[in-house]
Design brief:
This protein is of the alpha/beta class. The chain has 2 domains: 4-114, Tetrapyrrole methylase, N-terminal domain (Cobalt-precorrin-4 Transmethylase, domain 1, 3-Layer(aba) Sandwich), CATH 3.40.1010.10; 119-238, Tetrapyrrole methylase, C-terminal domain (Methyltransferase, Cobalt-precorrin-4 Transmethylase, Domain 2). It is built from 7 helices and 10 strands. Strands 3-2-4-1-5 form a 5-stranded parallel β-sheet, sandwiched between helices. The chain has a 5-stranded mixed β-sheet with strand order 6-7-10-8-9. A hairpin with a 7-residue loop joins strand 8 and strand 9. The protein is elongated and about 60 Å long. It starts with a strand and ends in a 6-residue tail after the last strand. The mean pLDDT is 93.
Length: 239
Amino acid sequence: MTGFVSFVGSGPGDPELLTLKAVDRLRRADAVLFDDLSSGPILSHARSGADMVAVGKRAGRPSPKQDHVSRLLVDYAQGGGRIVRLKSGDSGIFGRLEEELVALRDAGIPYEIIPGVPSAIAAAAAAGIPLTRRFTSRRVQFVTGHDASGELPPDIDLNALADPMASTVVFMGKRTFPTLASALMDRGLPPHQPAILAEAVSTPHQQITRSTVTDLADRLAQERGDQPALILYGPLADG
């Protein structure tokens, strides 16, 4: 009998930020396939006896290929029962959700998507700032800092990202931010534009560093560390 898959957004890491629906699905799951950033205390909500399978990806570390993760998810679901695919933040934001949905649809497996607190929203909250401002930031844009090769995507809209009146959040961008910052300043983004590096948001290792675009780029060119991070810049980031 075919099982049922719940894609659960686990939020940025703090188990208190899980939704009630997320906790319910974890408690009823027969198997949980989880990302690295969804591990730790969040997994304490899974029921005793459930299969716990780590399938997370981290930049610069050995990680399972996406084809393997999708195949594993299908295999578990075809075995029957309730399956939770636990993804950090919100699964629909840079979470490779689409590839796994396609695999389930092709296999005829039913599923649901349960939203989670996006890490960008949690980062702004941790910094004590809004993502929008009434007169100076009426637009928010999220962008990935690297493509499948680990480099800055060649087709991103640099002119849009250089808009000083937009709030911008860069996901997975510590390694490529120096290159991105240079390209943005070439297109008119002020070097002194406020920026924030938000690391390990909502966890005991959280660190919020306020800077400018040029100073943050210089810092990340020298040392990046291994904590997961978001970079925020724009009128939102001046506190």
